[in-house]
Each structure stands twice: as C-alpha cells, then as structure tokens.
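Backbone description:
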Amino acid sequence: MIGMPPKNPLEFNVNANNYVVGVDFGTLSGRAVVVRVSDGAELGSAVHEYAHRVIEQSLPGSGRKLGPDWALQSPQDWIDVLRIAVPAAIAAAGVAPEQVIGIGTDFTACTVLPATADGTPLSDETPDEPHAWPKLWKHHAAQPHADRINELAARRGESWLPRYGGKISSEWEFAKALQVLEEAPDVYARAERWIEAADWIIWQLTGVESRNICTAGYKGVFQDGGYPSEEFLAELNPGFAGFAAKLATGEVGDKVDGTTLAPLGGLAGRLTARAAGWTGLPEGVAVAVGNVDAHVTAAAADAVRPGQMVAIMGTSTCHIMPSDRLAEVPGMCGVVRDGIVPGLWGYEAGQSAVGDIFAWFVDNFGTDGHERLTELAERQAVGEHGLVALDWFGGNRSVLVDHNLSGVIIGQTLATKPEDVYRALIESTAYGARMIVETFEKSGVPVEEFVVAGGLLKNRFLMQVYADVLRRPLSVIGSDQGPALGSAIHAAVAAGAYPGIEEAAAAMGKRTEAAYVPDEARADAYDRLYAEYRRLHDFFGDGQMLHTLRAIRNEAQA
C-alpha cells in the first residue's frame, strides 16, 4: 500500500548518522547524490552519461529515420544510471550502504512511454518501431494533435482548460498518445500502460506501479478528481475514448473517481532484491514517490512557500511556484493542487529552450566557445549590438504554448559579430522570463522571490543580465545538484525522518538570497529593449509567418 510516510512517532532520528540518495534523470545524463539527513550535506555524487543521449535522427540498431521534431530516449540508459551512478556516488561519499534509509528520484517531464501491464517498455519488443520508444519532453512532433485537443476543448468549454492557461502542450501525455494512436495504431493497441518515466522508474525500483500527483496533474491533465471525459476523447478520435484506462494503476494514496494518485513525499514502496542488486543498497530501503526534476528542486532551494518562484535553468527553463491562491494565468503549464507541496496550489510555466539556444549557436557559429563569447559580450554596453531576439528556437512553452514557433533575430548588419548575437540570445531568454513573471503578476499571483537553480548558474554574466532585465534581485540555490538534492529530501520524508516536505526542506535545502542585484542604469536600458521584444512577441506570436516557414521546411525534408 502506497501512501504518506509514518509521522508520529518519527521512524528515524534526524540527528543520527543516516543518509539518503537522490537520483536525477536528466536529458543527456543521470546523476546520483548521497545526502546527510540531518543537514542536507552532499557527501558524494556521480554522473552517468546516457549511451543513446537524445535519439533525434534515427533509431539505434535499425537506423530507421525519424521525422522532424522527434526526440526519444532509451529505458536502458535509465537503468544504467541506477547500476552505475548510484554505487559510484555511495563509494565517493564513503558511506556504508546500510546507513542509507531512503532513495528518491526525479525525471524530465513529460517523458512518457508505452508499456505492457507488467511494465515492459514496448521498445524492448519492437525496437524498429519509432512510436514504441519513450518520447522525451522535447519531442514536439505532436503539435498538430495538441492543436486539435486545444481547439476542441475551447469549443466545448472544458473546465480543465483554464487550469493550463488556455492551451495544453504538445510535450504532454495526451497529445503524444493521440499521435501514437493515429500514426501507429498497432503500438497504441499493444500499450496497456501509458506511463511517465518518473513513475516507470519507481515501478522498477519497488515492483509496485504508481502514479504521482505531480506528473498526473501537470502533464496528464488530471484535475478535480479525474482525467478528460470519454466523451471528449471520443470526439477527438473514437479510438481514443478509453485512453484514461492506460493511465490506471493499483492502490496508491487516495482513490478519486476510480483513479489513485500518490502524494509527493509519500512512500512508494521498498527497494526490491533486483533493484538492490543494481544500486548496491539494502533490500527494503524506502523509495519515495516519483517526481519531476523542476518540482523537486523547490525543496532543494528551501523555496516551498507561497510566492517563491524557482527557475531551473538548463537546456530549458522550468518556472515553479507554490501559491495559496488559485488563478487563471494565460499560457501557464498548469496549476495543480498539491503539485509541489501538499496543501498549496503549484504553478508551472517554462521556456522550451534556453541553454539549448546558446549551445546551438556555439556549436554552429561560435568558434570561440562559451567562455570567450561571454567575456566579449560582457564588455558591451546594453544595446550596443543593436539586436533583439525572440527566444523561440525550441518553440514557445509560455505564454503562447506553441512549439511550431521558431527563433527570430532582428537588427543584424554586416558589422554584427558573433558575440553580439550571443549576447542578444542571452538577453532574449531573460525577456522571456520577464514575460512569464509579468503574466503571473497581472493575473493576481504575486512573485515574491525569484530563485535560480540549474547548470546556467555557472555563468555569472547571464545571471546579472537576468537581474537587470527582471529588475529584481535573484536568489540562487546552494547546490550544483538541485534536482538530485530535492529527490533526496523527498526520500528523507518518505523514510519518516521528517513529517513533511516543508520541514525537510528547511533542514536540508539551501539558497543564498539576493545573490545578484539589478543595476538601475542597465535596468532602465533594458526596459527599452524589452519593449521592442514585446512588439516582436506580439507580431510573430500569431504564428502565420513562422508556421508557414516550418511547413515549407517539413515538406522539403519529407
């Protein structure tokens, strides 16, 4: 039986020499960290690079070509993280496995896979079929299916649509599943389960299938006790009517409308003998309910109170914020009760590409590399390059929710240099973040503190640009492994060391307040550039030109 951890009395003494393991499954790699329960000290970590990385061009083995905007992953890569990174982290920490009382995990989302009733990925059975493989969060080939879902939901006045800012994303469960149904109906028919990787990995660790409230709410359109109705789904496609049955599971948490969801910080089960063999941990160790990388990071930054927005900045950026009020924020990725911490509304927004944009530019045009381009860009005065860009190189997640949009750079001349473009791209992502913050506040959901986490924290110039553009101080997380630390904090709760996420975050999480403070003169200059960004945003946001260009590209590639 899965539910909340024991609370009274506490099963463990937090002052004792106990440890937990957090495992973060990212886009290109997985990392494990060993954390002391009493104070959150990180004693050892290890990273395993996925052998298959992101599968975007062709399938492993067969070499079968994939279409535009596809992005897949291999389940074997995830298992290898458990086999390689977890034992290595424990060894690096110098901790005896018997001292570990819990393990927690997080995943990119929506990363989702079709599986059999016993959890076997369909990619194991039919590796030559693209739709049998897990679809990574950045798989955007289901945009036409998302468009149809949004159009029908708006026409029918579905009550759940405003909880997602008026549009659901092509990255999420329903759009991706509808794509499978219509492009590979045999795969859809064989898929007895359609399951987030965040829940699948817990299944492998415990032998118990579960569905966490976070991914179900944000990526699975679970609101007010249920999924979209069979009537709605049948209108999309008669064969889609029973899709929610593929999301069903066993006894987990509180049963609502025939569906059971596991609470965050809950005890998902105990480590099986097989999983103990993979990880080197003792059989029976507590396993926390699955979660999303961005959402667990709030605990790692001790930012689980209303109005604390955490921006997890890496290849993309996800904006997470608890709140004590419910509002409809245009273009948000969802608002879910208990979606970050129990008892509060959890909001999510995001930018589909941030670090990916900088990497694209350097890989293709910036022969000087990130450090040199940053150094040259930092020497410029605000506006000196004469450029403004739209940060839509991976589509727009918030606030337009349209992954068929694309990047735009305005103002280039024969004098434009690589560092000019590089700086403009950095600034464009800061403008996108400001658009999100302003949209929340205009909707009556105040942002009291902006907290940054993720790999891009290493670029101090980028952080200062964000402070100047946002015109507000930036707090920063006190860990290089935010998601993994957050998962470890959830593991401590699941093991009974703390009564709840808030208490565990206060003891184990860490952040530095106002680490970056805006410069007033630069902020004034950025206000002028941001106004031009807004003009571009509104002009190209209707998608007419950018959609046409993408369609022409797709036709030519086909």
Summary: The radius of gyration is 22 Å. The chain is about 35% helix and 15% strand. Residues 302 and 506 are 6 Å apart (CA to CA). The mean pLDDT is 94.
